[in-house]
Request: fold
Amino acid sequence: MVENRPWLNALSHLVLITGVVVVAFPVYLAVIASTRGPNDFYSGLVPLLPGPHALENYSAMFGAGLSTSGAPPLGLMMTNSLIMALSIALGKIAISILSAFAIVYFRFRFRLVAFWIIFITLMLPVEVRILPTFKVVADLGMLNSYAGLSIPLIASATATFLFRQFFLTVPDELMEAARVDGAGPMKFFRDILLPLSRTNIAALFVILFIYGWNQYLWPLMITTDTGYYTVVMGIKRLVAVADAIPQWNYVMAAVVLAMLPPVVVVVAMQRLFVRGLVETEK
Amino acid sequence: MQTKRTVFGNCVLPYLLLLPQLAVTMVFFIWPAGQAVWQSFLQQDPFGLRTSFVWFRNYERLFHDPNYLNALGVTVVFSISVAVLSLGLGLILAVAVDRLVKTRLYSALIVWPYAVAPAVGGVLWWFMANPTIGVVPYLLRLVGYDWNHALSPTDAMIFVVVASSWKQISYNFLFFVAGLQAIPGSLREAAAIDGAGPVKRFFTITVPLLSPTSFFLLVVNTVYALFDTFPVIDATTKGNPQQSTTTLVYKVYQDGFIALDLGSSAAQSVILMLIVVLLTVVQFRWVERRVQY
Reply:
């Protein structure tokens, strides 16, 4: 701090407190709504204080779901989301660390071509190639399957770059020493490179888990079987009905459950999260 | 391209290592993108029996279609508003944090919405803005404004902008804080000794030195507003009322997936791809050649 200006410090606190309240208020309301009974949402203002129905709302959504909206129980949808998020995060890390290893530690023909092909994936979000990608997945018979939910999203330019950048900073001597001792490339990768990359992998995992969990358009397109719905896309169906019949207590219980896992991951691993975020954008 | 001083000599292994990544990329990225380009030059008859090659007619048709031009306008307004709102609020919060000493708790409390899915964020605000029971319409009624995003295009646009910016504030905040902390304290101290007050220091020192961060964030936020906000719109307004919140991405989805107008949807996809390529190139050019003082 440059100089002492009490009123400016007070202003800063005020700004931050306002910011925190504005950022948290929608979530606070959702939590409150999820503890109320259905009769609180017909008219007037939404309730601002908690009610006694939390347990029944959550257990109803978690175990049974809402039949009027055609939404399966949240337990099932959250399991699907978890499977999808974990496969995407782990799959992305696995295939990108291997390709970064190939690009940095080998010299071979078409190395530059391979690098550029991977780079292009950065430029093609799902949203811009919706129909043709859907067709490919349909032709491969991967609609309504965990493979279809995760594999098409598994290619990652950012993760490959991150590992490439990191491998370039690993001292050359390590690899030379390993070669002198007679270690082959895979042994070097497993025993030296992998342990060195541990923090990077963890940071990347946090970011990619959130990315996978929050996918919306992709599961929306390729699942028609409610058994494969993920929780983030399933919420859409609940809301469509909630506009007609006020059942906001159930919808908000679902919303709270849908955002809980990624938020817990971010809060619990804040340091890794910040690191992952900053590194992937470099 | 950079590599190691010594490398492993093996002619098969590197290809095997690259195989999974390249296979996924080819099958799910390059091939569909190529299909989209090819498809955009074709036109199907209404019964899907015959397909003919029509050169650029799909594109021509698009740029004479008032609905498409409307979506283009909506996208421009929407993206600029989201970028300005989330960057502005992120900057204000970051500057406030940068002034204070003990800030771990504040940072933790501002950062977490990043983890909330855009669709979920949309629903949270949908509940807040519900015309019958929502908090926002209630407060606006007190000042005499009758909020209804189901009928008024302006209200709907404001709604999607706010709902989309909400979770992006935390992201911008994080990067602005990092940018502010990278500014050497000595510069500000020197300016303070020369008699510059906090406001003057902010505009003559902080703002110029923050310009690389701001530029980077501007591109990232534009990409976010263009593509990642699809869930917000689809889970809430669905592009209504009167297409006032139909962005380019939402239109690709509607025309292709719901109306099944393949040629037009493909042409729109290609235009979007060009926009992304352009933005990525711009981003890399500028990140390489950082603004320096």
